Each structure stands twice: as C-alpha cells, then as structure tokens.
Amino acid sequence: MIALHDYELSAECYKVRLMLGLLGLKWRVVPVDYYPGAEHKTPAFRTLSPLGRIPVLEDDGFTLHEPHAILIYLAGRYDTSDHWSPREPRLAAEVAQWLSFAVDLDASAGAARRADGFFEAVDADAARAEAHRLFRILDEHLWFGERQGRGWLCPAERPTIAEIACFPAVALSEEGGVSRQDYPAIRRWMDRVKRVPGFSVMSGVFPAAPGR
Amino acid sequence: MSGFASPDPVTLNLWHPIAAIGEIPPGKVSATVLLDEPVNFAKVADGEPFVWRARPELRAGDAAPSTRPADALPSLVAYGYLWTSLGTPPEEIFAIPEYAEPDRRNVAAASIGVAVSAPRAIENFLDMGHFPYVHTGILGEQPHTEVKEYDVETSAERDEVLATRCRFFQPMASTVAKGGMEVEYVYRVPHPFCSVLYKSSPLDANRQDVIAIFLQPVGQERIRAHMMLSILDDQNDDTFIRRFQLMVFGQDKPILENQFPKRLPLDPRAETPIRADKSAIAYRRWLSAKGVTYGVIPAAA
C-alpha cells in the first residue's frame, strides 16, 4: 500500500493527499512530527528525504520526496485518463511552468503562513508582499482564461497537476495574513477546484457549496 | 492593528505561558513576545529555565548565560510549559490535579501562532455549537447540532468559570474513540487566558481526558496558543496524539482569525447571544468584573 509521510497542517503534504484522493487511491499515513518536533530534520528522516523535507511517498519499494515530483509520479502511474499530467509537449511544458510558479507560492504565501503559525524564521512581510505580486499575476491569468472559456491554469478541458500544486498555498494564504479579497478570479478558480470529484479538505480549507 | 497599550494590572500580574519546556533548545537564548514586550528565555547549565526582558546585547540564538541573570523575571514550570509574568504574579498557578496521575499521557501538543485576541480564542474553546460545522466528522456531525441545556457557575471561591453537564454527540471524540458517542464535557476557565476541558474518556467510563489551552497574549490581537493534553491513551505515540490535536485546532484557526471585531466586546449589548452561549456570557461577565481590558472592548462605564 502507498505510504505517505505526512504532517496534517503542511500545505505541501496536502498537495499529495489531494492528488491521492482525486485519483481514488488508498494510502497509509505515517505521521511526521514536523512541528513542534522537527522530526524531518533527524538523521533517520534524512535517509528518506536527504533535504529533510516533507512529504515523502513510498510505493512498491520506490521512495520519492518533493511534492511536485510525487504529483508527477502519481498522475503518471495511476491516472488512466491521462488528464492530470498531460503528455502533449506544449501542454506538458505549461504544466511544468505552473509547477515552478507553485514553488514560488510556497516560498511566499506559504512561508508567511509558516512564519505566523509555526514561527519559522523568515521575513513574513517580504513574503506577503511577494505573495500579493504572484496572486496578481495568477488572478489576471485566470481572469483572461475565463474570458477565453478556459477554467483551469493550462489550456486543457480538465484540471491538471498545476491546479493541485498551486491550490494549497493559495487556499491557506489568509493564515499568513494574505487576503484574497482583491482576487476574484482566484476565488472562482478555487471553487472550481473544490468541486472536482474526489476533492478533499484539510484543516483551514473549507468545501465549496455545490455549483449551479 | 494591535495598537500598543500598557496592559491592565490584572493581566500584567498573571502567569503567562511562553514555551513548551521540551522545546527550549539547550544552551541557547530563545525569544518571544509577551504583552507586546520582547522577552528572552533560556535554560541554565543545570537545566533550570529563566526569563528576562530582551536586552540588545543578548539575542535569540546566542549562547545562554551560565547563571540566572540578576534581572530575571518571575518564572515557573507547570504542565510542561514555562510561565512568566511582567508584574507580580500569585504564588501558585491554577491546579490541574489530573496532570500528576501516573497513568496519564501528558503531551505538550504544540504552540501555534494565531491572529486573534486571547479572549476570543477562549470563547471559541468554550463553544460547542460550532462542532458539527467546523469539526465535521470528528467533534460533531449533522444532524446532531443541538447544544443541550448545561450549567454554568462562576465560583467566587476558586475564582473561575465552570460549565458542567455539557453533552454532545461526537463521531470521533479522541485518538482512541471507536465510533460515535455522546460525550460529556466540563469546562473550566481558571485564568483569563487559559481554559481546561474535561471530556469522557472512551477507555474508562469513570475518568476524563483533559485538554487545556494556555494562551500567550503576544499582543492584543495575536496569541501563541499552547496546547496541553493529559489523556488516557495506551495505544498511540505522541506524534499521533499531537496530529489529532493539531488537526482539530487547525480547523478552528480560520474561524478565530475571521472574528470581528478581533477583541472580545464585553458590553452585553454588543453581540446577540443564544442559549448555547451561556458559558461565553459568564466568561465575559467574569472578565468585566475582574477589570481585564487587554484583548477586549470594555463595556461602557
């Protein structure tokens, strides 16, 4: 059975839990005492994740760290419809572009949340400013997409792992003092993501009402 | 914004929690903020912790002084946490006798930063009405939404608010629950910014699990919420117990941070309570009577 080394309040771990749920997979949680215990920095944990980061996925003797790598693996191995991680070269490249954007979201909106909630030593005000710059870019991209009939980050009929990679840091941003009030297209996109069958919440994320 | 104001004397003279003892890095200076005032703390050579008002020459991460500094603030260790005071605190801290029972698991679950005033967070802790909506599938579930009649008293002798005979249907009351059960709660508020909850143990019908929140007012609208569990659980490790508690608290966090106004209004006409809010009303009255003004909007005189 798939094992996920997981911390409940981690936005990065949530990406993997989301993907597992959306793919209808079952998994076993191995709780990691990330905060306050800093278990991810112990030598034992570093044998699984050399950089000392969560999440870590184990599947059939294959061990993988870094959430976006895990998304690519899970979609590639278990998504029979091929829509989560598309193979068409342009589309695949656009997905990769958004995975990079998601790294920046985790390092800004995500970092502000970790600073405020878990006292991680980062400049929270600088992180918030960067998060707003990224949210503005994201909101515009989504707004123009809506005008063109595109509901997702990439020009595809169905959501991709780009959604899963970007969603957690955005959905939890208010815990880091980054309001989404000025980003209506982001809020509409969040509701669309929440309505994908198999979507799951985590602490701090609420389900959307059914769509019209 | 949080707006600096010197705290009222009641608040100033309280014991305030600042860190879990187990998380104080040995040999190093740690830093936090209490009542808008930066304070530092460390363990000395023999492991005894002490606290002092932050000074520019000694910063977080520096080597800890080898002896207790002359200007050390009062401090004590209780329930797994280090407590201090910026005023003249009482000799003793409120009692949680269960903590000393040998077969209990005492776990310092975590300290989480929340953008909320301490009294708002206490009030949310006392509220059962939100269980089915915020802690769906764990501490409540629809259609079991009724908050049944319960009793509240403010004990003058013990100087605390006590809510008893609280009952609620809970699908997953604790780490050892084996399905839904009607759980009985007792809430104590023995300190303006601390609350202790007793709930039926799924393992032993005659005993209760204890869950406490000790709130450190960083400012009037920001806290560090320190959580302590003293529970009957012979099955799970600390990591699992912490995970359960953090999952539940993480669900409360956005609710707490979206309270408006952020400070708790003590004027009885400021918000419209329902019957289920009995304990909150008693708590507000108790704060008013004590003269606590920190983190609240005092009632007009």
From TrEMBL, chain A:
Sample GO molecular function, one term: transferase activity
Record keywords, A-Z: Transferase
Keyword presence, Lipoprotein: no
Domain GST N-terminal: 1-82
InterPro entries from the UniProt entry: Glutathione-S-Trfase_C-like, Glutathione-S-Trfase_C_sf, Glutathione_S-Trfase, Glutathione_S-Trfase_N, Thioredoxin-like_sf
Tagged with keyword Cell wall biogenesis/degradation: no
Pfam families: GST_C_2 (PF13410), GST_N_3 (PF13417)
Domain GST C-terminal: 88-211
Name listed for the protein in its UniProt record: Glutathione S-transferase family protein
Native organism: Hansschlegelia quercus
Lineage: Bacteria, Pseudomonadati, Pseudomonadota, Alphaproteobacteria, Hyphomicrobiales
TrEMBL record, chain B:
Assigned keywords, A-Z: Dioxygenase, Oxidoreductase
Record flagged with keyword Oxidoreductase: yes
Keyword Transferase: no
SUPFAM superfamilies: Bet v1-like
Vanillate O-demethylase oxygenase-like C-terminal catalytic domain: residues covered: 117-288
InterPro entries in alphabetical order: Cholesterol_7-desaturase, VanA_C_cat
MF terms (GO), sorted A to Z: dioxygenase activity
Alphabetized PANTHER family for the sequence: 3-KETOSTEROID-9-ALPHA-MONOOXYGENASE, OXYGENASE COMPONENT, IRON-SULFUR DOMAIN CONTAINING PROTEIN
The protein's name: Aromatic ring-hydroxylating dioxygenase subunit alpha
Natural source organism: Hansschlegelia quercus
Lineage, opening ranks: Bacteria, Pseudomonadati, Pseudomonadota, Alphaproteobacteria, Hyphomicrobiales
